[in-house]
Specification:
With 360 residues, the protein is an alpha+beta fold. It is 32% helix and 22% strand. The protein is built from 9 helices and 15 strands. Helix 2 packs antiparallel against helix 3. It is globular, with a radius of gyration of 20 Å. The N and C termini lie far apart (42 Å). It binds 6-O-phosphono-alpha-D-fructofuranose. Belongs to the FBPase class 1 family.
Length: 360
């Protein structure tokens, strides 16, 4: 399917999606969502680029603390509202979860008796502005989005009363707690030297670059394939002493040129997941935020960071593991659950997996 669409780069995202929908009618609804995602990414790119101007309304802190216990920047709140609105007005979403929302948001109007009709068949999970603490220093930031099918049996009984309703609403909202293997699409927008939108619909990973003269995302990286092996590690190495031994030993070998490939690794770490993963996809490498003694599940969130990014990396031929299991196979118990993540070039990540297995 995608090869036919990708015989020429320069195809706009809109044309890419309409041709994919023509060739795959069953995902037409899904392509509608990408119209909203594209618009939101352009708007957020603009906000980020202008955020440091003295006249900007988006400078500084909101004065609130989010469920993560992080000071919310005005930009966190604005980008979250922008993305929620854009997705809501597609009429295709039943429920969404966001890093900036304490609990999932029911978009079916939360009215009793509202069946999740086939129009509202999707669930969106997202981090509206990952790495936002970097914005003031002009360091790359990004938006991460995952799309699941909604359980259409989820409905709120018109005659429900009290506890019963809460129970049913909870069931509907629990539809966000799906493993990465249920993802039907994932995307990230990277706000950096260029604005990129990288996506997968489950048949490969495709990269688009915003042509600001046209105001359109154009296909610039058709069918991205991550190099199978690399010589770049991308971790916050201040945490090395607390890592699991298998990872400590593997990374030490890579640094000494004594790993499987014999290559001597260098280190590249932006401290902004979307930028680090994008470079890893294009240049190869191993990006990670592993668990450690202090935080056994690391720092990144499974639902709207680990799983969608793992889907994109796997669809580009890479691997994504906690060290002990595939990130995409983990079913979240709570919305903001953390997960250890080691992802990137297949052969290198496999070396970490083997080191963990040998240590069992
Ligand atoms: P540290 C940004 O705050 C973020 O959530 C990810 O984008 C990034 O990979 C990670 O945290 C960086 O964390 O502890 O290295 O600053």
């Amino acid at each position: 399917v995608f090869d036919e669409v990708c015989e020429t780069t320069g195809v706009t995202l809109k044309r890419f999606m309409s041709e994919v929908a023509m060739l795959n009618p069953d995902i037409t609804e899904l392509t509608v969502l990408f119209g909203a995602i594209e618009t939101a990414c352009k708007a957020i790119s603009n906000l980020v680029k202008r955020s440091q101007l003295p006249s900007s309304e988006t400078l500084g802190y909101q004065g609130e603390v989010n469920v993560q216990g992080e000071d919310q920047k005005k930009l966190d709140v604005i980008t979250n509202d922008l993305l929620k609105r854009a997705l809501r007005f597609t009429g295709r979403l039943g429920v969404l979860a966001s890093e900036e929302e304490d609990v999932p948001v029911d978009l079916s109007g939360a009215n009793k008796g509202v069946l999740i009709d086939e129009g509202e068949r999707y669930v969106a999970v997202f981090d509206p502005l990952d790495g936002s603490s970097n914005v003031d220093a002009g360091i790359p930031t990004g938006t991460i989005i995952g799309i699941y099918e909604h359980d259409e049996n989820c409905a709120i009984d018109p005659d429900c009363v009290g506890e019963d309703c809460t129970e049913q609403e909870a069931q509907c909202l629990a539809n966000t707690l799906q493993p990465g293997t249920n993802l039907v699409a994932a995307a990230y927008c990277l706000y950096s030297s260029s604005t990129f939108l990288v996506l997968t619909l489950g048949s490969g990973t495709y990269g688009f670059t915003l042509d600001e003269n046209l105001g359109e995302f154009v296909l610039s990286h058709p069918d991205i394939k991550i190099p199978e092996e690399s010589s770049i590690i991308s971790f916050n190495e201040a945490n090395t002493p607390n890592w699991d031994k298998p990872l400590q030993e593997t990374v030490a070998k890579w640094k000494a040129g004594k790993g499987k490939s014999g290559k001597k690794f260098s280190s590249r770490y932006i401290g902004s997941m979307v930028g680090d993963v994008h470079r890893t996809l294009l240049y190869g490498g191993v990006f990670g935020y592993p668990g450690d003694k202090k935080n056994p599940n690391g720092k990144l969130r499974l639902l709207y960071e680990g799983a969608p990014m793992s889907f994109i990396v796997e669809q580009a031929g890479g691997l994504s593991t906690t060290g002990k299991e595939r990130v995409m196979e983990i079913s979240p118990e709570v919305v903001h659950q953390r997960v250890p993540v080691i992802m990137g070039s297949k052969n290198d990540v496999q070396e970490v997996i083997d080191a963990y297995a040998a240590a069992q």
